[in-house]
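Journal club side-thread
Mid-discussion, someone asked how the predicted structure for our own chain would compare to the paper's figures. Pasting it here so we can look after the session.
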Amino acid sequence: MQTQANDLNVLTNGAKLVGESVLPGASLLMDGQFLNGAAHAAVGIGARLALGPLGVVLVCADSFSKSVTDKFLWDHVKDGIEARKAAKAAKAAAQVEAEAQAA
């Protein structure tokens, strides 16, 4: 049963990716998020005119990310930055503790 759900999820995400290659925001439109999907489509067209292919790829990635993970692309970047800071702080704290034990 779990395999069938995974297969369906893979097929759905594949269809969303194909849709994004045609129209930015397609994956959100497929999810029924019409306002957000239409906004991504409009921004995607503007990004294509202003920034070229890279701009539209970023808008499509953002739309797909929001559709699949319910988080915008920027949220993923922000989470990664915060995780890096937390790991760095933990490493520094461990180093201070190790130095305190050695003394």
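Post-session note: The mean pLDDT is 92.
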